[in-house]
Amino acid sequence: MTKKYPHGNVTVVWQPDLCIHSAKCVHALPGVFKPKERPWIQLEGTSEEALISAIKQCPSGALTYIKTNSSNTETMNEASENVKVTLIENGPAIVVGTCEITHPDGSVETRERRSSFCRCAKSENFPYCDGSHKNG
After folding, report:
1. What is the DSSP secondary structure assignment for residue 96, as one 8-state letter?
2. For 2, which DSSP code?
3. Does 76 have pLDDT greater than 60?
4. Can you spell out the DSSP letters for 17-38?
5. How far is the first Cα of the chain from the last one, in angstroms, to the nearest whole number?
6. Phi-psi region of 30 (alpha: psi -120 to 50; beta: other; left: phi over 0)
7. CB atoms within 10 A of CB 1
8. Is the pTM of this model over 0.85?
9. Kind of pairing between the strands at 114-117 and 63-68
């Protein structure tokens, strides 16, 4: 499931299945990202620049954006030639860049931008982190 929230020339794209609940978005813009409310993303009163800055802090890639103007469309894309992997202490492995994942059943999936891989094997969304490591 993917949800889109338009705000001026920026559309916030949220993919809940990718979210690891790091709350970086909430800490960056608590007036916009309100996990205890529905809808949990409330864009009124925020600037496009602040919104984009907060989205870029999302470690899992669950939040991205599409920016449109009269001449072109820009999709957030941080893929680079070098894939970067950051290991979070007692948390996931964050992969930045485009990578190809081969699952045990042989299916292949390409992930762009960022992915958070589970290292504790407790995730309900394995091989991706869902924040289950926080539950002990």
Report:
1. E
2. -
3. no
4. GG-----HHHHH-TTTB-TTSS
5. 28
6. alpha
7. 6
8. no
9. unpaired
- Compute the distance between CA of residue 117 and CA of residue 70 in angstroms, rounded to an integer: 37
Which residue shows structure tokens 């970067």? 84
Confidence of residue 77 (pLDDT cuts 50, 70, 90): very low
Listed residue (14, 1, 3, 21) closest to 128, CA to CA: 21
Confidence at 78, pLDDT banded by 50, 70, 90? very low
**Model confidence at 68: pLDDT above 50:** yes
Angle (nearest 5°) at CA 19 between 16 and 21: 125
Interstrand relation of 73-75 and 99-102 (parallel, antiparallel or unpaired): unpaired
Look at residue 117 and give its three-state secondary structure. Answer: strand
User: Is residue 136's pLDDT more than 70?
Assistant: no
List, in order, residues 6 or more apart from 39 with CB less than 8 Å away.
5
